[in-house]
Design a protein that fits this description.
By secondary structure, the protein is α+β, with helices and mostly antiparallel strands. The protein has two domains: 60 residues, no CATH class; 234 residues, Transposase IS200-like (Alpha-Beta Plaits). The strands form two sheets. It has a five-stranded mixed sheet, sandwiched between helices. It is globular. The chain starts with a helix and ends in a 13-residue tail after the last helix.
Length: 317
């Protein structure tokens, strides 16, 4: 590497010392959440918007080898549970959100940022129970938000419906954005599935259906006591995409790095502390031009510089 280019990269990396480095490990489950700017209904599930989001999700998943278990895209945010087999979820998220923003802005005739200024919230899910809980949360989010009575009724991108019916999601190339003679595929397919690392697919899906049904019944009981009613599919589609919810947004909500049982969470936090210490020591050696080895899970430097790093697997017990 030329000395000038090497110095530029070191300066860029040096500025990143002010934030904690991200550890990216292979074969991990994650919950990805992101909302639209000003909570606007920019993702309102019109047919062309839902198709465009599905196309972008299928492309990003295929491009970076990501397993998508469930994805629920509401009018102003999404919750997506993934299994990152190769340690590439940052690239997946970056590409997916970028392409959705371009497509939706083209469809809506707007140019400003689509997503909120804060980065996407990515939480590593540490155990079976937590993955099931987040799958239930994602699938049942439109129910809990009072939009529909049953999870399968949500008209937008509904990975839960495709998962339980074993039906692949097919999306056509959005012609309002992509060139007709371009290289992008005319159609993309995404299969929502349970990876074997989580367990037997039939058993996991059966458990998920039971949990979602329980969530639906609990929500119905709460609604009956309060006298509230669901908004319904038609009212959702009638909302103006430029408007926002009238409810007050919660401030300073937690953005957990890990989610799991106490033992699993304590173990993950301990491993992350070891990662930070090892990373900082290697970083100082690297800045001074010395030979060094960065810890497994080093992402930014491993992607953009010729450093040495570990295998990217979880640290041993």
């Amino acid at each position: 590497m030329h000395a000038k280019k090497d110095a530029t990269i070191r300066d860029s990396a040096d500025r990143r010392r002010m934030t904690r480095p991200r550890q990216v490990l292979a074969r991990q489950f994650h919950l990805v959440t992101r909302r639209c700017t000003q909570r606007q209904f920019l993702l309102r599930p019109d047919d062309e918007i839902t198709n465009a989001i599905a196309y972008c999700l299928a492309d990003a998943a295929k491009r970076f080898g990501i397993d998508v278990l469930v994805a629920t895209v509401e009018s102003n945010h999404h919750h997506t549970v993934i299994f990152d087999r190769h340690g590439r979820f940052p690239q997946f998220i970056e590409h997916f959100h970028k392409m959705v923003a371009k497509c939706v802005n083209a469809a809506r005739g707007r140019r400003e940022n689509l997503w909120s200024s804060g980065e996407a919230c990515v939480t590593r899910l540490l155990d079976y129970e937590t993955v099931l809980a987040k799958l239930t949360y994602s699938a049942g989010n439109p129910v809990q938000d009072g939009l529909v009575e049953r999870a399968t009724q949500w008209p937008g991108l509904n990975g839960y419906r495709h998962l339980i019916h074993r039906k692949p999601l097919r999306a056509r190339r959005p012609m309002f954005f992509f060139r007709r003679d371009g290289s992008w595929p005319d159609e993309l397919t995404l299969t929502f599935a349970i990876p074997p690392e989580l367990g037997n697919a039939e058993e996991v899906i059966a458990e998920l259906k039971t949990r979602v049904a329980a969530l639906e019944e609990d929500t119905i009981r709460i609604r009956r006591r309060s006298g509230a009613r669901v908004l319904g599919r038609r009212a959702v589609l009638d909302q103006k995409w430029s408007t926002s919810p009238t409810t007050i947004e919660a401030r300073r909500t937690l953005r957990p790095r890990f989610a799991g049982g106490r033992d699993a969470r304590n173990k993950a936090l301990g491993e992350y502390r070891v990662f930070l210490d090892t990373y900082r020591n290697a970083f100082e050696q690297w800045r001074s031009g010395k030979s060094c080895m960065f810890p497994p899970g080093t992402y930014w430097l491993a992607r953009f510089t010729p450093i040495g790093s570990g295998t990217g697997e979880a640290l041993p017990d």
